[in-house]
């Protein structure tokens, strides 16, 4: 069950580095998942939900699902924007969608990741951890 009452997103500009490209000068497909990580970290810094915040609360959030669709290539030296959007759900999950836009504003790639909460003993949390529910309340996502 998803709620659209308050949408939180973040846009981060990134430059394609040489080591991310193949011999043709285009970004190797595996790096797009790393770009999603860049987007999640920028989102966390902007909205107060960093990996350190999660870790300090005694939890980890492994990815259990990721999807990535490619539409256009990115090339060495180009800059692009990652738009990361938090998908609000009642489940004890972190769901993010991603859209990468090239310098011309064209959609290069889109995807989604789903992360679950594990407590300090590695147990799956079936309910939102208290710190996460407090964050959702603060952000108007309850």
Structure description:
Belongs to the 4-hydroxybenzoyl-CoA thioesterase family. This is 4-hydroxybenzoyl-CoA thioesterase. Keywords: Hydrolase. It comes from Chryseobacterium phosphatilyticum. GO terms for molecular function: fatty acyl-CoA hydrolase activity. This protein is an alpha+beta fold and about 140 residues long. The protein has a single domain, classed as Thiol Ester Dehydrase, Chain A (Roll). Helices cover about 25% and strands about 30% of the residues. It has 3 helices and 5 strands; from the N terminus they run βααββββα. It has helices at about 30-45, 50-55, 130-140, and strands at about 10-15, 65-70, 80-85, 95-100, 105-115. Strands 1-3-4-5-2 form a 5-stranded antiparallel sheet, covered by helices on one side. Strand 4 (about 95-100) and strand 5 form a beta hairpin. The longest helix has 17 residues, at about 30-45. The chain is elongated, with a radius of gyration of 16 Å. The two termini are about 10 Å apart. The relative contact order is 0.24. The mean pLDDT is about 95.
SSE blueprint:
Blueprint: E1 8-15, H1 31-47, H2 51-56, E2 63-70, E3 79-87, E4 93-101, E5 107-116, H3 130-138
Antiparallel strand pairs: 1-3, 2-5, 3-4, 4-5
How is this structure best summarized?
This protein has 142 residues and is α+β, with helices and mostly antiparallel strands. The chain contains 3 helices and 5 strands; from the N terminus they run βααββββα. It has helices at residues 31-47, 51-56, 130-138, and strands at 8-15, 63-70, 79-87, 93-101, 107-116.
